Amino acid sequence: MSENKKTQFITAGRDKKWTNGVVNPPVQRASTIVFETVAEKHKATVNRQNKTLFYGRRGTNTHFALQDAMTQIEGGAGCALYPCGTAAISNAILSFVETGDHILMVDTCYEPTRDFCDTIMKKMGIETTYFDPMIGAGISELIRPNTKILFLESPGSITMEVQDVPGMASIAHQHDVIVMLDNTWGAGVNFSPFEHGVDISIQAATKYIVGHSDVMLGTAVASEKYWDQLREQSYLMGQCVSPDDAYLGLRGIRTLDVRLKQHAQNSLKVAQWLATRPEVDHVRHPALETCPGHEYFARDFTGGNGLFSFVLKTSYPRATTALLDGMRHFSMGYSWGGFESLILANEPKSFESLRTVANPNFTGTLIRLHIGLEDIDDLIADLEAGLARYNALITEKQTT
């Protein structure tokens, strides 16, 4: 009998061979694994690819438990672990490309992903073509004979466009192109990648998997077709993580479902409140119709989380600074997915370096929020006070 996903968050990775009968797998730290007989060493060597204690970089029981859990939750054939989300992205790509290949990369990708393509990939003689996240079936026109990877991120970083992942994946597979997805926003909870045509699902587990803003961790779960190559190539590139960090990632999974539900509930209330504000041009929350690609969110996702953006009607950096500097409950930080609320601003001009073909099509300042687990009334009051500071400077500018 198959388990409901909600149950899987509690049971996944808790096989007795990893736990030895306790609730949580112990933290097993090791570099050298010792063997008492030649036969024992030979057996470990032959099975070193299959969650067998062989050498610390291949993993310990703590790592194996987390890999099992992520594989079960996301639905693939195996999970590789990395020291951060960026390492998961770069090594997943590196595992499948060679000089002369071509990559299709969504233009709204995470900024370090773009930097990786524009530097390391370019230096290796691998060309990247950026495409509009809303291109849909038009992706077929960009596929070349040497296209190796279609890389998606949905919703998109900062501007939150939701893509037609299954539609684009279907086209890619017609050309034997590998479909990779940065699934950090979906977190393995709200979007099931392998049910929508994805071949490799990547997460910055630093964010919702860990959930407490205290661990760097990345994961890549692959389908059976690509798992062996991803595993071995990542191993050859030296990818491994601390067992302590793997343990904290595994512990985060136990509360992932309930945390995400509360993040989603809080963020939707804030988004709906912001939509009524006169300073706001529109809100880019995937659950709202004002978000590009909302129809795909409604079709493919089972819920939301705490991350979304909204766009102000004007761009006035002094006023934006006044909004940000006086926040009590929102802090400024370059991550999200923890229990705390965060806020960052992007002036329209900043997208000139962040986008190649996808015009954000707005002229006001974009504010990205991560809504944490604080009391929702406190968060709204904090934003209301921030907008009052913002309005004071806007009024001052208009009267001088």
Describe this structure in words.
The chain is an alpha/beta fold and 400 residues long. The protein is 38% helix and 15% strand. It has a seven-stranded mixed beta sheet with strand order 1-7-6-5-4-2-3, with helices on both faces. A five-stranded mixed beta sheet has the order 8-9-12-11-10. α4 (61-74) runs parallel beside α9 (243-254) and α12 packs antiparallel against α14 (376-398). The N and C termini lie far apart (71 Å).
| Tally of alpha and pi helices | 14
Give me the count of strands. 12
* End-to-end CA span: 71 Å
Sheet with most strands: strand arrangement: 1-7-6-5-4-2-3
Average pLDDT over all residues: 95
Radius of gyration: 22 Å
Helix content: 25-40%
Alpha-beta content class = alpha/beta
Largest sheet: 7 strands, mixed
Strand content: 15-25%
Shape summary? globular
Q: What string, H for helix and E for strand, traces the elements in order?
A: HHHHEHEHEEHEEEHHHEHEHEEHEH
InterPro entries: Cys/Met-Metab_PyrdxlP-dep_enz, Cys_b_lyase_bac, Cys_met_metab_PP, PyrdxlP-dep_Trfase, PyrdxlP-dep_Trfase_major, PyrdxlP-dep_Trfase_small
EC number: 4.4.1.13
Catalytic activity: an S-substituted L-cysteine + H2O = a thiol + pyruvate + NH4(+); L,L-cystathionine + H2O = L-homocysteine + pyruvate + NH4(+)
Enzyme class: lyase
